[in-house]
Amino acid sequence: MTKRGRSWRDRRRKAKQKEEGVLPASLMSRDDNVELMRWLRKNGFQETHLVLTDFPDTGRGVMATRNLKAGDCIVSLPENLLITTATVVNSHLGQFIKNWKPPLTPKQVLSLYLIAEKSRGKDSFWYPYLQTLPTSYTTPSYFSTAEVDALPPAVREATLQHRRVLQGSYKSLKASLHTLEPLFPDWKAVFTFKSYRWAWATVYTRSVYKRGPGWEFLDPSDPDVYALAPFLDMLNHSPSVQTDTDFNVNSKCYEVKTETACRKYSQVFINYDPYDNVRLLMEYGFVIPHNPHSVVTFTVDDLVACLAADRNDMSTSKNLLQKKRELLSQENLTEDLSCSAEGLSWRLQTALQVLCMDHDSICNWWIVLGQTSQNPDLWSAARLVAQRLISKKLEQHCSITQIAEKVLDPGSSLIGVFILMLLREDLHILEHSLKDLKSQTDDSIDK
């Protein structure tokens, strides 16, 4: 029998992938990835049917080397390979940070530890893992001024708030950094804001949920539930898969079980949670196309402004309007007012109907809204206000998007790509919602 060589086997594998309709991917042979896997295995990580891979659509990710079925445990990471607050407390840093004032939060503790270990280079136990981490991120603290200015107002404010939290976090611990001089004589050069921004983003974007012991010396306002998990953090997010992730107290391993089958040579995903693209961008630094959880949000003031557009509408009288505002607040109908690709949310529809009620209806609002069939006159009025609301927001977003397309250069910045994707998705949602509302109006006229 003729002996088949490696080249023949590679060609056969690629042909099989093509037949199965699998996206082409190149196995990553970078030294840092090779060293990571060697280090993981040396420290108790069990072999899996997953390999680190570079995918054309998502970049670095994880590929299955065999078919995976629902219920399979795809990752089992030993506790000694997790970076938690317990790791830090039992390290060289532990005795120094316990008495800091104000007390540190778990995120601050992990961030300091990452900086400390990174500065130790190859002397750090975590060196093979640290070498695989990004050197920068696409989270809000890395946005340029032009990129911040290109965002919609609500997202821009969320970005600025993210930055304020980061700056406040660094400022609160900066006064205590000098106590680390016995460990780091050049502490000023090590624990800079730039290095802290990197470490903070690493913790924010790559942590998994694992409840810690709740150290008494930590700030209780921030729960101790963060852990950095080498290799596991290479799994990318998809809203279309279901996974079960948790720490197994019996095996002492952090485990990931897939509830969604995955074909051989395909990328393996996990589901972070049902997040819209704004939250994904703020917390993880990316957006995904056609995200089913994406929404465009509104404020009560947005609704009221569109209601007041009709000066002859008695529902906008000052006293009645104040009563409606109080009712919306009382019934928790002032938040999460949104529309999606599926139309207006129940909360937005309800808030609009409350705002369109006359004096008699508002006194019995729970009866009116609780009727088996929708009040056609009330919903007709609410639908007209909704059309004004969506039209106004659509006009604003068109203007914002046009400016962003002129200012941002997606060819030189991945952040610019994500912002433009976010804006265009909002436009799609608004256009679809407006079309749906107009269709409903036409149908009601025909009837």
Automatic annotation (TrEMBL):
- Which SUPFAM superfamilies does the annotation name? SET domain
Q: Which GO molecular function terms does the record list? A: protein-lysine N-methyltransferase activity
> InterPro entries, from UniProt?
SET_dom, SET_dom_sf, SETD3_SETD6_MTase, SETD4_SET
Q: Segment Disordered: which positions?
A: 1-21
CDD domains, per this entry?
Answer: SET_SETD4 (cd19177)
Q: Which Gene3D superfamilies match?
A: set domain protein methyltransferase, domain 1
Q: Where is the composition biased (Basic residues)?
A: 1-16
Pfam families associated with the record: SET
What positions does the domain SET occupy?
Answer: 48-273
Specify the protein name. Answer: SET domain-containing protein 4-like
- Which species? Branchiostoma belcheri
The gene name on file is LOC109464658
